[in-house]
Amino acid sequence: MALHKNMPTWHHSNWRGRFRHQTHIRCIASRWTPNGLMIMGEEEKISSAVFAVRTTAGQEINVANLIAARVEMNKLPIKAILVPEMLKGYIFIEADGPHSVEKAIAGIKHVRSRVPGVVTFPEVERYIVVKPVIEELDEEDIVEIVGGPFKGMRAKITRVDRTKEEVTIELLEATFTLPVTVHADYVKLVEKAKKES
Questions:
Q1: What pLDDT was estimated at residue 150?
Q2: CATH number for the segment(s) 133-191
Q3: Which of 67, 74, 70 is closest to 51 using CA atoms?
Q4: Which string of DSSP letters, residue by residue, matches 33-89?
């Protein structure tokens, strides 16, 4: 995260705690508040908005780095650039207005276009706050194993231990039933269990 030299130090921990292990973020000048205002200091408040920019899928971080370099070189009034891991093909730019975003993205490789309109903070927040995988898993769900020796195999969850964030699974493709306990991060939900009514 790049921080502006005049940014108060109390901004650092709030951003780092919120985005750690979840989102690649490039903060140019300041930070969010829930009402959409940017806090620059005790006495000065500046209103800004968030704009979405379409990019080539898989090139979001490269585009953000190129935009950040242009912003710093040309001293453009861009506050932050956000690259959500969960949303492919888009980045969010916080600026005073759309004209600033247009200047920042003009001619940059892999930028498709600026999405018309303004993005609200609750819309951005849902891509920032990521629920742990364990919260969406239940017994009898079908999952795909995404790491370890059984990678790529499908399994059925037989037990969920939310405190340890572990699941016990039975491999569907195995010739015999063998319960295996793995961390919830090693499975991806494929199909929810059918609930009987």
A1: 86
A2: 2.30.30.30
A3: 67
A4: -TTSEEE-SSS-EEE-EEEEEEE-TT-HHHHHHHHHHHHHHHT--EEEEEEETTSTT
Which pLDDT score, from 0 to 100, does residue 129 have? 66
Nearest to 48 by CA among 72, 81, 70, 14: 81
Residues of the chain with CATH 2.30.30.30: 133-191
- The whole-model pTM stands at 0.50
pLDDT at 65: 92
Residues 6+ apart with CB under 8 A from 96: 46, 47, 48, 49, 77
The segment(s) of the chain belonging to CATH 3.30.70.940 are 10-128
Which residue intervals of the chain are DSSP H helices?
Answer: 10-19, 60-74, 98-105, 121-128
- Mean per-residue pLDDT pooled into runs of 10, the chain (197 residues): 40 38 41 42 58 92 92 90 86 91 92 90 75 84 89 92 91 85 90 72
How far apart CA 102 and CA 112 sit, in angstroms, is 12
- Give the per-residue pLDDT at 41: 41
Domain 10-128, CATH among 3.30.930.10, 3.90.1310.10, 1.10.760.10, 3.30.70.940: 3.30.70.940
Q: Cα 148 from chain centroid? A: 24
Q: Kindly give, in sequence order, each residue whose CB lies less than 8 Å from that of residue 140, ignoring residues fewer than 6 positions away.
A: 156, 157, 193, 194
